[in-house]
Structure prediction request, 627 residues.
Amino acid sequence: IMAPLGKARDDVTQLRKELVECQRSGFVRCRIGQDTFYLEDALSGSNLPSGSVSVVIDRIIMKRAVGDRIADSLRQALEIGEGRAEVEISDKSSGPVKEIFFSEVLRCFSCGSSKDFARRLLGRSLEEVVSLPLKELQEYLENLVTTLDRSTRPEIIAAVRSARELQEHLDVFLDLGLEYLALNSEYPNLSSGEKLKLRLGSVLCKELSGVLYILDEPMSGLPAKEKDLIREEIIALRDAGNTVVLVEHDVESVKRFADYQIELGPGAGQFGGELLRQGFLSKGSLGQTNQRPKRKRNASKASGSHERFRLVGIPLVPVNNLKEKFIELPVSTVIGITGPTGSGKSSLALSILNSLKGAESGRRPGGRRSLETARQKAPPKPFQGKVWFMDDLLPRGSYSSVIATYTGIYRYIAGLFASTPEGRARGITPGFLSLNKKGGRCEMCRGQGFKKVESDFIPPLKLLCDSCLGRRFSNEVMSLTYRGLNLSDVLRLTVTQAATFFRNISAIRRRLEAVERAGLGYLTLGQMIPSLSGGERQRLKLATVIAGDRRNERGLFILDNVTRGLGLEDWENLRGLFEELTDFGHSIIITGNHGRLADLCGWIIEMGPGSGPTEGGKIVFQGVPEH
Ligand SMILES: [Zn+2]
Ligand SMILES: [Zn+2]
Prediction:
């Protein structure tokens, strides 16, 4: 099993480099032309032998139970060969008998281009077909089916049948409003709403009945029009004889079409988990917890003329479908970017981020044209200050962090424990109490309290650490107490409890109170960051900056998709946080397409007019939202 090297075959230096790399990774043989060499020998001369070069990943003698090894080696070959692999099958006595090429990249194996896929079907090449917007693809297939329908050749009958099947699947995605995507649209570049619809669509395609579907917030973050599309699909699933369990924050939207409701509460986190009520839904059967809370916000904040706002000008850099070159934004304001899925909300936010980051690092942001546009206007002041970008993804390097370490309070807590009389007497340093390095932590679980068991076929399993029984520390550390609690006890406190417990230590209290104000008081200090939901992570990031060491720097927060999965209480918490930030002089940009987004904002930018590369990417409105 081999991996071909050197896309640029003429670049011998590059090829040598790749071979040396392979040698370092522990591979010993390569094939050049038709001959096999030891890497060492091939690299010893000043010139490489001529011919195409592949590194030998594995040599396997066929017998029972080598399946896994073949799969592993082939996978490795595809990785090293950047999607290409070669397999040579040899006979013990007669030598090579067969050679097979594999490619994951829809490309000609030997020249790497797709030009050899020149065959055309109804005037279109495969490459063209996969680039068609789904709507046009549907028309193309329709055309194909009508043209070929009368054929009696068995392979054409089979082709027509699969074209019909493909048409049915496409219908689902067209119904979900994704007509502008193509089969080769790259998944990572899609907006979160588009990804969501794709995932939902691929479930809906299967047309099963008698199946229980559990959909966890499939509609969160989508605008009302698109929610309706998904709602129709869910109703179709039910009518086809399936059961759908829908997990949803937005009680109103459930009320409108669910048949049966199960309500959990009464609060969040440790205050939740109880079944409040369940039963068939009839109008007006919902309890008071679903009433919309009174709006505490002072409406005058958002109203008034444009003159009330101090504007800064930001040249925009191109991102995805964004067509704007320059934007003026008010400072010390919450700015909401809204619009349909795929209209370029996140692209605008990213463009602002990239432009300001570029300015921070001294590069001139934007292209020439954007700078000229900027000059023509009476120039608004450039933006000054720090920029924080907060998405709902796992923060970098936080895979094994807990709330206490992520918020930065753990070093203070460790300091407190080390400076107790007993800690001093035993010569314990704060570093010894670290969760991130060897010392006082339980080494069996590296201070996590559990061990992770991973397998190919089941989701990772967390097992309580049998060495420390979940307490994370050695007995030596466990016997150390501060005001009656040991470190393990402290990590079990909720943020709210800990804020009281450490009320005299301002560095700790300040940080914990910010987390509490973000509506996360129910999290425990020892909770792993990866176990938080996206929204929780985003608000935690925000709270950490607000109360952190750099809290006195004014700047701009960009929160992408902030409204996804927000419960009613969360809206109020977020509003409070935002007010705190803008009062201090920070500016905030949030993106999302929830109908209530404007409630949080003093300024609205609406992207559109449609979705996708041609229809979206323009600012269709910006200004003070109407109430
Ligand atoms: Zn070719
Ligand atoms: Zn342990």
About this structure: The longest strand covers residues 95-103.
